């Protein structure tokens, strides 16, 4: 059995990680970390875990944790994992970090967009961006996985095939994104109160959202050139879900069948990426509670642009599910183990 420790187990992503790992036949969770609920039973924080988890919440002592587990998940805000990791820890365990601490190869970009000094940049070179469908082989070999952000996961997987094949002009990419409220985390914030969110939709972080440089860096690595995009996220009054609508100019005339063949080529062996039928738009309700990403496209011949679309659950494929995918790869397990979840409806 793989012994798992979770730092940040009482956030939305942390709880989702616990929920999924409880179904994983090769895993035993031995450390439920939570700075806010030390010594409180886990089920007392999340009543859905009653009679399922009897453990008490522990602290975030990574040095002690590394002595008793094989892998540590850090479902925590930016800066914490970087402040806890060290060479001794990495000699003992693998780390899968949910924050942006090790997502950027250029530490200056991280420090500029996140407004903090990176305290362990020496480990960046050894980390791997954990988008399994693209970096599968590198993930298998690394000790540190930077679990991608939810918006970047959906955006990149929607755009990646056409960018890689050179069909779209990278200078024209625009990403319009929408997310449920769980994407903002579990902390109490005025803007996330029910009366503030209900019956409302709004854009936020316009021109300055932190996922912008993450999408740009990954697309740039794929394209072999620097790419800058317009990325605008929106908050919508639902618990879960990410919807991406991306736009780009075509470099040449293409038919539906030609573009569909490209998506099929890239994703035919990817269990978690579903290329939808012609004319079917991705919807968050058809991926809720699952690790699937539904993608599709539409060609606008009138403007010579293509619309690339994606939908996924921000807490599963956008966080906990993708982290488990990464863990499975790192430990040589079947990649889909614990993740063959049928989407919930309604």
Q: Key features?
A:
2 domains; Dihydrodipicolinate Reductase, domain 2; Rossmann fold; alpha/beta; single chain; 7-stranded mixed sheet; 7-stranded parallel sheet; 346 residues
Please tell me the CATH architecture of the largest domain by its name.
Answer: 2-Layer Sandwich
- Radius of gyration using CA atoms only: 20 Å
What is the CATH topology descriptor of the largest domain?
A: Dihydrodipicolinate Reductase, domain 2
**Average pLDDT taken over every residue:** 97
Percent strand: 15-25%
Which structural class is indicated by helix and strand composition?
alpha/beta
How many domains comprise the coordinates? 2
Low-pLDDT runs = none
Number of helices: 12
Q: CATH homologous superfamily of the largest domain - what is it?
A: Dihydrodipicolinate Reductase, domain 2
Strand arrangement within the widest β-sheet reads: 3-2-1-4-5-7-6
Helix percent reads 25-40%
Q: What is the 3D shape? A: globular
The main pleated sheet reads as: 7 strands, parallel
Distance between termini?
35 Å
What can you see in these coordinates?
This protein is of the alpha/beta class and 346 residues long. 31% of the residues lie in helices and 20% in strands. It is built from twelve helices and 14 strands. Strands 3-2-1-4-5-7-6 form a seven-stranded parallel beta sheet. Strands 9-10-8-11-14-13-12 form a seven-stranded mixed beta sheet. Strand 2 (27-33), helix 2 and strand 3 (57-58) form a beta-alpha-beta unit. Helix 1 packs across helix 12 (316-330) and helix 8 packs parallel to helix 10. The mean pLDDT is 97.
């Amino acid at each position: 059995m793989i012994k798992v420790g979770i730092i940040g187990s009482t956030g939305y992503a942390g709880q989702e990680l616990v929920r999924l790992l409880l179904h994983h036949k090769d895993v035993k969770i031995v450390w439920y970390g939570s700075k806010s609920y030390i010594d409180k039973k886990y089920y007392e924080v999340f009543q859905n875990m009653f009679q399922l988890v009897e453990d008490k919440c522990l602290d975030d002592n990574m040095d002690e944790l590394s002595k008793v587990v094989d892998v540590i998940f850090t479902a925590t805000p930016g800066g914490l994992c970087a402040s806890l990791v060290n060479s001794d820890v990495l000699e003992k365990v693998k780390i899968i970090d949910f924050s942006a601490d090790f997502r950027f190869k250029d530490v200056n970009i991280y420090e500029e967009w996140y407004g903090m000094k990176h305290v362990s940049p020496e480990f960046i070179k050894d980390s791997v961006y954990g988008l399994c469908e693209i970096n599968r082989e590198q993930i298998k070999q690394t000790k540190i996985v930077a679990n991608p952000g939810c918006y970047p996961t959906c955006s990149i997987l929607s755009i990646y095939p056409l960018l890689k094949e050179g069909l779209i002009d990278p200078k024209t990419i625009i990403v319009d994104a929408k997310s449920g409220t769980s994407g903002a985390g579990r902390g109490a914030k005025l803007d996330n109160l029910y009366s503030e969110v209900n019956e409302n939709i709004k854009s936020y972080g316009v021109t300055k959202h932190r996922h912008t440089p993450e999408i740009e860096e990954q697309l740039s690595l794929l394209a072999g050139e620097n790419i800058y995009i317009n990325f605008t996220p929106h908050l919508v009054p639902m618990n879960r879900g990410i919807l991406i609508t991306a736009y780009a100019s075509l470099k040449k005339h293409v038919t539906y069948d030609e573009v569909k063949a490209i998506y099929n080529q890239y994703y035919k062996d990817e269990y978690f990426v579903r290329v939808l039928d012609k004319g079917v738009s991705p919807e968050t309700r058809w991926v809720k509670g699952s690790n699937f990403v539904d993608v599709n496209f539409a060609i606008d011949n009138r403007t010579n642009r293509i619309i690339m679309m994606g939908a996924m659950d921000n807490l599963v494929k956008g966080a906990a599910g993708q982290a488990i995918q990464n863990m499975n790869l790192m430990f040589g397990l079947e990649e889909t183990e614990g993740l063959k979840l049928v989407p919930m409806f309604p």
